[in-house]
Design brief:
It is built from nine helices and 14 strands. 25% of the residues lie in helices and 28% in strands.
């Protein structure tokens, strides 16, 4: 059995820094302040290897500047000093400037958890939230024992196509999937509710939404990209090796001129 990767990315090499950054060490994230959320992240073996950090930047940002922004980010001395990855509970400073960056633009249009209602409609979860079990399997060291994780990563599963390739690229879907798949010693949930609630909380923590003054609809204004950094053709950030649960996202708020970094490294 295989997994399907619909991501489109490009490698970029910049020439100069066009943005400058400042670390925001006092930024609070509710997912780290709420004891229930912290306990669940620990149960899922994510807490010790997951990082959310916030930085501000001085210059005005427009979407067409994304490649230059990401390049500047991974050249900036403040970023090289304060950007961390967490491995087995210990923080490690990134410290190395990139010579090449792989950039994948990540859509973020969802503003409601109703997007996941189809999980109940397709025998992935029952109406009481209990997750339907399946035969055991392992994919990329991840233990598969229910229809939820099977739907998330096994393309031959009956439910894989219940979410389209475009929907699977959505940041909220990815966030939810990362939580469901967990870390290397994850204790999985029998009910889906906690996965949905924590995904909602982290999404609210790191993604900015605003009401459109004309349509009055809520829309996401953050611009999101998934990144891999290389130095002399060797990948080093977020990790030196590929894994479904090795990831780093930059969530850029062009209004507040903040960028949140959300990353995880598989043990």
């Amino acid at each position: 059995m295989t997994t399907k990767n619909m991501a489109e990315s490009n490698k970029y090499v910049g020439t100069e820094r066009k943005f400058t950054f400042h670390f925001l060490p006092d930024r609070k994230f509710i997912c780290y302040e709420d004891n229930n959320c912290k306990d669940l992240l620990k149960k899922w073996s994510l807490l010790d290897n997951m990082s959310i950090q916030s930085f501000s930047f001085d210059e005005k940002f427009r979407s067409y500047m994304l490649n230059d922004f990401v390049w500047s980010f991974f050249q900036d001395p403040v970023i090289l000093q304060f950007l961390q990855v967490y491995y087995r509970g210990s923080s490690i400073s990134v410290s190395t400037a990139a010579t090449e960056i792989e950039i994948e633009s990540v859509p973020a249009t969802l503003t409601s958890m109703n997007f996941f209602n189809r999980l109940y409609d397709n025998k992935i979860a029952r109406t009481d939230g209990s997750i339907v079990k399946c035969y055991e399997d392992y994919i990329d060291e991840i233990y598969i024992a229910d229809e939820l994780r099977k739907m998330l990563i096994i393309e031959e599963s009956d439910n894989y196509d219940k979410f389209t390739p475009i929907e699977r690229r959505e940041f909220l879907f990815r966030l939810f999937a990362h939580l469901c798949l967990g870390g290397s010693i994850c204790q999985y949930e029998d009910y889906i509710n906690d996965y949905l609630n924590v995904a909602k909380q982290i999404y609210k923590d790191i993604v900015n939404v605003q009401k459109d003054p004309e349509t009055k609809e809520i829309r996401v204004i953050s611009i999101i990209t998934k990144v891999n950094c290389y130095n002399d053709n060797v990948k080093y950030y977020p990790s030196s090796y590929d894994h479904l649960q090795n990831f780093a996202y930059l969530i850029i708020d062009p209004i507040k001129q903040h960028v949140n970094v959300f990353s995880h490294v598989w043990n």
